[in-house]
Specification:
Largest sheet: 4 strands, antiparallel
Radius of gyration: 18 Å
Distance between the termini: 36 Å
Strand order of the largest sheet: 1-2-4-3
Length: 187
């Protein structure tokens, strides 16, 4: 463990430990109290102007998870996962034409994933919005009305694989100053 991670608070450790896991122990359900903690974190996400367009579909029913798995070419993860949370946006409460709901829902989805990690669960962000034909299939299975968008789905469970946590700062991703000063040097 490096010096930076030794001095980190638990919240930052959870952020660095959060990795995408796509294989789960199907026979090990997520405890209700853990699910509720995750939902508390999700609903606490920031929202532009406090509009809070996000809505969360908790998917624990095996028939719904299996229907997603059957409908999607990448849906095998739903066959194994005991829990998924679809992060949706009710656009009826959002200014027409604004895409700020994407940021609101992204923050909620990230809160969901980090909360799962902090509870010793594994997860993956399953992207849905503007991913055809995936988006259409998800909307159909979840019976989503036209004024609601599905931003993505957090697939959650006890991981059947492990990913090491990230450590420290990934320096090639960091630039100082303007883009041309930070990243276009030497071109």
């Amino acid at each position: 463990m490096n010096k930076l991670s030794e001095s980190m608070p638990d919240a930052l450790r959870a952020i660095l430990a959060r990795r995408s896991v796509r294989r789960f122990h199907r026979d090990r359900p997520v405890e209700g109290w853990k699910r509720d903690c995750i939902l508390a974190a999700a609903t606490s996400a920031p929202s532009a102007k406090g509009i809070r367009p996000f809505r969360f579909l908790v998917l624990e029913d095996r028939s719904i998870l299996d229907s997603l798995a059957d409908a999607l070419s990448q849906g095998i993860i739903f066959k194994e996962a005991p829990l998924a949370i679809a992060v949706c946006a009710d656009l009826s409460s959002y200014p027409e034409g604004s895409l700020g709901w994407l940021e609101d829902c992204s923050a909620a989805l990230e809160n969901t994933l980090i909360a799962a990690t902090s509870l010793d669960l594994s997860s993956v962000w399953f992207g849905v919005y503007r991913r055809s034909p995936k988006e259409e299939h998800v909307r159909e299975v979840l019976k989503v009305p036209p004024h609601v968008e599905v931003q993505g789905i957090a697939v959650i469970g006890y991981g059947a694989e492990e990913q090491p946590p990230r450590e420290g700062i990934d320096l090639p991703l960091i630039g100082v100053g303007t883009w041309d000063m930070a990243f276009d040097m030497g071109k």
